[in-house]
Amino acid sequence: MDSGLWTMHLMEGELPTSMSGSCGASINGKLYIFGGFDDKGYSNRLYYVNLRTKTGTYRWKKITNFKGQPPTPRDKLSCWVYKNRLIYFGGYGCRKHNELSDCFDVHDAFWEGQIFWGWHNDVHVFDTTTQTWSQPTIRGGDPPQPRAAHTCAVLGNKGYIFGGRVLFTIIQIFPGKRLCKEPERARKCHEASPIHLSGRKGHLFPNLELELVKEDDDDDDDENQLYQESFENRLRSVMWTQFLQQTRMNDLHCLNLDTWTWSGRINISGEKPRDRSWHTLTPIGEDRLFLFGGLSSDNVPLSDGWIHSIATNGWKQLTHLPKSRPRLWHTACLGQEGEVMVFGGSKDDLLFMDTGHCSDLLIFQTQPYSLLRLCLDCIGKNAALLEKQIPCLPPKLVQEVLKKITFWAAMTHRQERKAETERQSQLQCT
Questions:
Q1: Residue 288: beta bridge partners?
Q2: In the record, which residues are listed under signal peptide (predicted)?
């Protein structure tokens, strides 16, 4: 970042296969990659590479001698880094019939092979010191709905989750249409296959939206009697239709990473971001989170940025961000002076169109720069004018100044090259 130049390093060892939706996290100078999806299906493999090598060559290693039970195969999950541990949450993946549990919302199934696909809300921990997998016992609170393509961030000992893609179940009930034939057989069928009804083992209708379909000749007495019955018995005795619908969320949750208690959905005061998935959430300072981009529930790529304050429990939208630089499925990290750097991803709705991945680096300033940083930038931009004065600076500052000169020279070169490319494109169009 100091010089503004990219460098390419050779990769050796047990390289991870090309995947989408993998989860990457850095801890103690090592980059860990877990899960993902390719043409062979979902993965639960874990790799790491040491980024602090002195040889310039990075060597990947697949972790196979671990202890404990890893998560089931999945992609589009997120991770918290806390106390030398990688703490994974959620994701979309597959499970066998005997692996179905309350932490899994089924989206689709291959009945012959007893394979189910869906969303998770379970928590798994990998201790990088002992190379041990474990699943903590959640001691309280309401967990977030199973989801994927959400984002995670850590502030202190709290792990935050925002948004993501989820599954809703909508049931339409027809009060005047009771089942008259073989009700006992229908009841047994429902009890034997709860997964058909809800998509979640042990929970008939999670995240339910109930829609009562009224008819002109409905009998009020029948309707009143209907609503006095329990919901599950009701569905066994009336005509109903089920719809599974996917949507995206804008909810914020928090998990205490010491006590393993959930906050439940955090009630936000004031305005808040729209629902989304494939976004990023970056901690800035000790009590703020920076949210950027993603894909909305109506499949619109987003370019908005928001800051959430833990102290005030409110969101504030940044109005100075460019509207023409949407990003989704990108990465983000925090710089040395509070700037958030966004790289990669796409600017399109990947479900319907993909014109290519983004290769530019977006830098968002979330707080004023230090006086030293401002002076170094000024010298770097005006190196030709200050050429004779620069050697008079202290040796340590000279090194910093040279990096800034390189940075701004590279920045100017990229801008000139981009302008030339746009000019050539306009000439070809005319």
A1: 284, 309
A2: none
Sign (positive or negative) of CA dihedral 135, 20, 352, 333:
positive
Any idea what the CATH number is for the domain that residue 26 is in?
2.120.10.80
pLDDT attached to residue 341? 93
Residues 277 and 341 in one domain: yes
Distance CA 71, CA 34 (A): 10
User: Rounded CA gap, 53 and 61, in Å?
Assistant: 14
- Whether 257 and 138 share a structural domain: yes
d(CA 144, CA 122): 9
The answer to whether 351 touches 246, Cβ cutoff 8 Å, is: no
Q: What does the pLDDT read at residue 189?
A: 29
Which ranges of the chain have pLDDT less than 70?
A: 111-113, 169-244
Are 317 and 380 contained in the same domain?
no
Residues 227 and 80 in one domain: no
First to last CA, the chain: 39
Q: At 423, phi and psi to the nearest 5?
A: -65, -40
70 and 42 together in one domain: yes
Give residue 241's pLDDT.
55
pLDDT of the residue at 126: 98
CB proximity list for 177: less than 8 A, separation 6 or greater? 238, 239
302 with 420, same domain: the answer is no
